[in-house]
Amino acid sequence: MARPISRSAPAFIRIKKADGSTSKPDDVNAPTPTPSPKSEPPQQPSPSEQPASIPKDLKSPPPFEPEVRSAAPPDVRGAGEPAPEMSQSAPSEPPSPVAEADEIPDKPDLSKLPSLDIDPEANVPFIEQPKEGKEKDEKKKTGGKKRPEYVSSIERQRRFMTRLGMASLLLGGLGAAYYLGNQEGKEKGGNPLENFKNNLGELTDIFSKPAFTKLLPDPLPPPHQRPYTLLVDIEDMLVHSTWDRTNGWRTAKRPGVDYFLAYLSQFYEIVVFSSQPVYTALPVAEKLDPMTLYLPYKLFRDATRYVDGHIVKDLSYLNRDLSKVVMLETNPEHASLQPDNAIIMKPWDGSKGDRGLVEMIPFLESIGIFQPADVRPVLKHYAGKDIPREYAKKEAEAKAAAIAEWERNHPSGSGGGWSLGSVFGGGSSTARPKQPMTYLEIKRQQAQRMYEEEQKYYKEHGAEIMKMIEEDKERQMAEMKAGIKGMFGMGGENAPGAPPAQNTQAQAQAQPAK
């Protein structure tokens, strides 16, 4: 008897019998009779439909037959049988052998599948089990690639134009640098290639150099210009800023900062040189010197340079003779280009009773009094030392040497005192001359007297000076507004045809009436 095959099996497959002969089913498409579950057991599925790895000792449970119980069902249990559990309900259908089979693994072993004993004449290809190495390589090749991003034609055109513009800009910059190099070579001589490199370096350094080639205006004539320039920082030198949630930002002045600026302004042109932006440092500088008496010039972040990723203050852009420039700094990196002009001080942390600025005055004062031709050797001598203490020792030694010299020239018995003849009117005696002051002490006394006179004058006329400053600011603002209105062609009092002097004079006369 031939075994029935599944409906999905092709018609050309031949099934071998036990005796070796082949047979073809008469009607493949004929419906398979449905066996009765009670009369005879169900037929076994074909080998192609049989599930994999089904245990041979698996037994099917008996068919379920519903039992109708009466009000008092008789106890049909045996003596040793346990009572049935009421919580477990009997299944409505007999469990299928496929459901109780072993779980199918993720990677089934194809070699253990039952053979269909297919005729070799059918030329059915043999299924090989894939190797793990090839499978991983295929995953890397197929799964590692990403889907290319969709780019519209407008976006491609925009990117192309952007690249073209950048390339044109680069070529134009190189051409301009080469042209300027040739022009300099014709005028000044030299190698055109070196001139081209220098010009190219200037184009690339435009973002790392100060905004102006001259940070300060030209010096004033000798009677008005101070002989030396003193550069001071703001944060952690003149002031100290703190922030908390209760009060926000608070700025404290360092003890002695007012006396430091007012007294040394007699010897130095004091310039604020801060690495902070102008919008944060300028209000603090104006608070320190509201009348612009001691800080005539102020430099901020835009006057610094970037060298190796650090902010550096390049004094070569200062428009001053570096032999007459002294820079007070708290960060050594800021003075890395001109270390011989710098005095590195300890940053002020806001503590009370600090005397760092006041103790530095005698040393800076001595430079302004003795006026050395070059301050750099003097500063280099004190580099790495406690300058206030070391200079105090030098000044004490010079004072002791001056006293010893005066004692040699004026011995104690040469004059002064009294004698027996002078008591009885027999003679006269000259008094011993008083010990004179040193040159430094004389100049220091004069500077102190000048400081006191200036402070007295500013105290008496401070209100008038502040009023003049405010009027000057208002006049500048009026001139600026008039210039803006004239630029846009707006009429009125500040018409483009009216001279700016007449407009400012009319505004100045109208101010008292207000």
TrEMBL record:
It is found in: Mitochondrion inner membrane. Keywords: Membrane, Mitochondrion, Mitochondrion inner membrane, Protein transport, Transit peptide, Translocation, Transmembrane, Transmembrane helix, Transport. Residues 1-149, 486-514 are annotated as: Disordered. It is a single-pass membrane protein. One of its GO terms (biological process) is protein transport. Residues 32-45 have a biased composition (Pro residues). It holds the Pfam family NIF. Transmembrane segments: none annotated. The keyword Lipid biosynthesis does not apply. Essential component of the TIM23 complex, a complex that mediates the translocation of transit peptide-containing proteins across the mitochondrial inner membrane. This is Mitochondrial import inner membrane translocase subunit TIM50. It comes from Cutaneotrichosporon oleaginosum.
